[in-house]
Amino acid sequence: MKSNPFSGNYKTSQPTKLSRNDPNYGKPVAGSKSEKRGLKAAAHINAEVALLCDMIYQEGEKVGNGKAWILFKDLFQIYTRISNKVVGTLLRGRKHGFLDFEGETLFQGRDDNVPVFLLKSIHEIKSELSSDQEFEVGICHKAKE
């Protein structure tokens, strides 16, 4: 790559600085290894959010229409066997409107009795995440408007 200062093809005379108004500002170069790693990471995060929501549905109390709720302590016990990113995945799921809970974040022990609710049916969540084939780095999924 000509824009990589660590490659043998780097030319110091090239202007490499992007304006903050440029649509590519803060994004990896299209087709680069960085972009591929970002796309792979986004797909992995989507899968973790889907799995967490599925655990809430399978192990929680069903409330109809494919929705459910579970206490944080129960979810923590179940999900930590799968991943150590329970709280981060919960925050990601809430950010994108899949689930909700009281408070800014949840802590083991202090928030054991806080319920975590699915806001959409598990079928809607899985459909939204599986239909999102074009991942954008830094975005969990494309919001359906």
Automatic annotation (TrEMBL):
Residues 43-119 form the Costars domain. GO terms for biological process: positive regulation of Rho protein signal transduction; positive regulation of transcription by RNA polymerase II. Gene3D superfamilies: Costar domain. It holds the Pfam family Costars. Residues 1-22 have a biased composition (Polar residues). InterPro entries: Abra, Costars_dom, Costars_sf. Residues 1-33 are annotated as: Disordered. GO terms for cellular component: sarcomere. One of its GO terms (molecular function) is actin binding. This is Actin-binding Rho-activating protein. It comes from Armadillidium nasatum. The gene is ABRA.
